[in-house]
Amino acid sequence: MKQLYFVLALLFAGTLSAESLRGFLVTKDDLRLTGYVNQINYVVTGLEIEFTNDFGDRYYIYPNLVKGFGFTKDGQTFRYVSRYYDGRWYFLEILQRDKRMEFFQIPDGDDNWVNDRLLSLITEPISRYWLAIRGQALFPVHRVGFKRKLREYLQPTAPELAQKIGSKGYRYKNIHEIVAAYEESFKRSKRRL
After folding, report:
1. CA–CA separation, 77 vs 71, rounded Å?
2. How many domains does the chain have?
């Protein structure tokens, strides 16, 4: 019982210290609600955000209830979308959104608006990066098995790039460059025609 009180005290202290960031929610029927994003929380069932609307009402929103949300901090805009994968809903930060591929990142504790204290209770490891080629399913980019799995994922649409995965400059740490190379490969093939 003492552990439960300790966890609740930590959560309460975390919500008191979090700053509210001016932002918005996008509902399932494309309505945009303005207010403040107080914090992104990891809970046992996944992720939730604490959102206060312009009237001062506080809500805890799960990814399956909205299309996404966004906020601005220090002049930089952060946008998150709701995505379903393997029986769970996630809020994923949009890192890059092009014509053919979307590149996402899961919120992590490096940002002060993310409370990841309960992340250790989630038994399955959550991938940090995610890809979505238009018309294909969401793909978690895991460090283990990166070369084989990403090659299989890219093979149908970008076979030349798929062959380079795992070589120097095309490893897990270069995932940002791989996404840029994916879009660039289509620009080059367009010019040849």
Report:
1. 6
2. 2
